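Possible regression after last week's pipeline update?

I re-ran a chain I had predicted before the update to compare outputs. Posting the input and the new output here so someone can diff against the archived version. Not blocking, just want to make sure nothing changed silently.
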Amino acid sequence: MPAAISTARLEARISTDLHSLLKRAAELQGRTMTDFVISAVQNAAQHAIEQADVIRLSLADQECFAQALLSPPKQAPALERAFVRRSKLLRSE
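New output (post-update):
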């Protein structure tokens, strides 16, 4: 038996022009207006959150990133061996 899905209600007063616009867009996509609006709102919310995360992370890590570019850490021995192995493979081709 499938688990019950928890839902919440959202109400908004919109102009008749916007209502007509949403209704037409939904009809063009062969969807109900409710489905169209929920999908559009969900996409907008996800986009807003992704944009906020990108900006926040880039600001928080900006100094660390710049420092790594200006003073890169010494290569690990395994990385040096990988470069040597790669060079040998490229020469043999």
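Follow-up from reviewer: compared with the archived run. The domain at 16-92 is CATH 1.20.5 (Single alpha-helices involved in coiled-coils or other helix-helix interfaces). Marking as no regression found.
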